[in-house]
From TrEMBL:
Belongs to the TRAFAC class myosin-kinesin ATPase superfamily. Kinesin family. KIN-14 subfamily. Residues 546-556, 663-676, 703-719 have a biased composition (Polar residues). It comes from the Eukaryota. Residues 135-459 form the Kinesin motor domain. This is Kinesin-like protein. Pfam families: Kinesin. ATP binds at residues 218-225. One of its GO terms (biological process) is microtubule-based movement. GO terms for cellular component: microtubule. Residues 68-121, 504-538 form a coiled coil. It comes from Gossypium darwinii (Darwin's cotton).
Amino acid sequence: MVEMCSESCDQIVLEKDQTVENEPKPSPKSHIEILEENTDSMDEDTISSMNQEISSAQGPTLPILQKVINLSNSVQNLKKEHEILSDQVKAFPGHDIVGTLQLLNNEYDLLKKKYLDESSERKRLYNEVIELKGNIRVFCRCRPLNQVEIANGSSSVVEFDSSQDTELQIVSSDSSKKQFKFDHVFRPEDGQDAVFARTKPIVTSVLDGYNVCIFAYGQTGTGKTFTMEGTPENRGVNYRTLEELFRVAGERGGVMKYELFVSMMEVYNEKIRDLLGESSNQPTKKLEIKQAAEGTQEVPGLVEACVYSTEEVWELLKSGNRVRSVGATNANELSSRSHCLLRVTVRGTNLINSQKTKSHLWLVDLAGSERVGKIEVEGERLKESQFINKSLSALGDVISALASKTAHVPYRNSKLTHMLQSSLGGDCKTVMFVQISPSSADLGETLCSLNFASRVRGIESGPARKQVDLTELYKYKQMAEKLKHDDKETKKLQDNVQSLQLRLSAREHICKSLQEKVRDLENQLAEERKTRLKQESRAFAVAASTRPSLKQATENTKADKKPPLGPSKLRLPLRRITNFMPPASPMATKGKATRMSMVTAPPSDDKENNSETVMAPPTNTKNLLKPRRTSIAVKPPVKTQAFQPKRRVSIATLRPDAHMTTTPLRRSASGFNNVGTMERPSLARDPRKARYSRLFSPLPEFSNPSETSPAAMRSSSKFMGSPPAAQAGSLKPRHTTVVALQRKSLVWSPLKLKGMQSSYRKSSFLPLRHSSDKE
Ligand SMILES: Nc1ncnc2c1ncn2[C@@H]1O[C@H](COP(=O)(O)OP(=O)(O)OP(=O)(O)O)[C@@H](O)[C@H]1O
């Protein structure tokens, strides 16, 4: 660089020499050119030295040259900056934008997480500190002696310990001292700012979602209103609190969004008045305390003004105070005749995790506690005083109950305590200012107030609980309940669907097996028809050959009363097995020659059931349990009457005993089943079991498998010469038709999976078509 500089200088000197020696004078352009050529390699010092040299050598330099030099300087500077920036860019991790953004995102997430952790930790620690100090904190404030008291020669009875700011002593008239201890004692000389400095930590808890209540209690004229409201020169806790809330809310603006609402009311003679909603000229609007769904106390119709600045707040406080009930007592010219309650509602939303909070801050200036006798009031003032004392005593009761941890806290004994219910004791933070007068004239009142405050300080309240926005919580609770209910319903429906599917598959299985059985039966019937046709044709042939024997045969048939079935053409085909009789054959309806009847062998005392009914289900279930005989008589067509006058199929069954609940035909009264085998004892003992075992067994069990074959059935048919079914006491129907009918009930009954027994009793497995069998 030094070399470069010397070179440049030499060059310039050379140029200068040349300018002196060689006429004409060099144009400025040559300087520019030189400068341009060397700018890149020159630093600021070089240029400035060049400048000096040029000016000393040439006297006044051309302005353009100066400009050029300046520009060169700028270029140099810019180049330097460029270099620095290039280095920075090179040093930056990752050249690609996406990668860099990703890195930044990760870093942001990490920081966000750290911030949230730190912020919750801060809140926890802060809260812990307040809890250690006590969620109910009592401050004592003593006002200075006023002019009147001084004039009256009253002395101060309050002594303060210079080393202890939490204690004070009251000197009684007998010179005895009584010591009181509080969280802090404010002396007469302490200003509003000192008072608020102690209050501030609790006040800001409302922004963290805690309910806070600050109230001033004390004798009339001791400075309650002064502490809470203050004066324009000495603003009190109310104004300072809101100022602080706005300040902190602004500080947390990047993370939290706050909305502040202010309501102002007074409890005057046990009536609530909205101080923001009405002027003193207007008639008072009646307000009542209602319990909201979330369990908090609300006053429907109360004005809630959204505030954005301390100026707005100040205006509101001023307008509210204008309509407040005040009156002159001999203790205070502008004595508050009501309890004034300022409620600040804070709605907070965490912008990072969207958590919402809703909390209340109550700032209460109580009416002065006073001895009615002492202040010499009468008329309206007396009434006011009585109400004031009543509500203050209710407040005392609440505080006593909280202190003694009784199960019932009498919050509802006064409007004041009812209103403050969710902000007094329990899970909120409370500050009480006990205001006292130093005057010896007020000694009694002072002792009363200090005793009351000591009781309040003795309350061991539980840990304060953070108040989430209860309306949100309530909404979520309802949603959760609905979800739970829906889940239950869905589960129920799923169970139902499952059981229906099971039932459906069982029914499908049954239907399949029934279809198979029907097919079997139809085959058997066809066989039977064939056999009978052969038999009949043989019989007709014999009758034709021997007439007298035909007569004899007819007589025999009449005597037996068991004519064989008519030709198969006249009988209806076997259809689906049902519990009802098949419809009457066309023959029967046309000529009434063919008759199908179900005859129940009735007991002698039940004659009504013998009358003919058409397909009527039995109404008297008693009859179902009685032995029955069912006969189907078929009269052949007129043409064949000469050969076959009357035919009838008779089916005799016996109703099951009372234990039989499933297929009556399967079990005879004698304890045998239809095919003469002994009923399995296990099934007989447990009809339910038997029912289900039958449900899944394809056919009734036959003791002799040979009897189940169509051939065996044919051979056992009465039409093939088997003994007539009417054999007394036998009750073992062996005909295939009977078996079919027996199966009918077997088929029908399992379908009633539930309540089978009852349904069985309601509907007959064999339709009752009673007819008087005249034959
Ligand atoms: N700490 C104090 N320093 C100076 N002046 C005070 C102080 N406390 C009270 N005062 C003055 O005492 C007077 C009465 O105070 P204030 O009206 O606040 O009493 P109060 O307790 O609210 O009475 P009331 O119950 O009758 O409403 C006022 O003039 C007020 O300025």
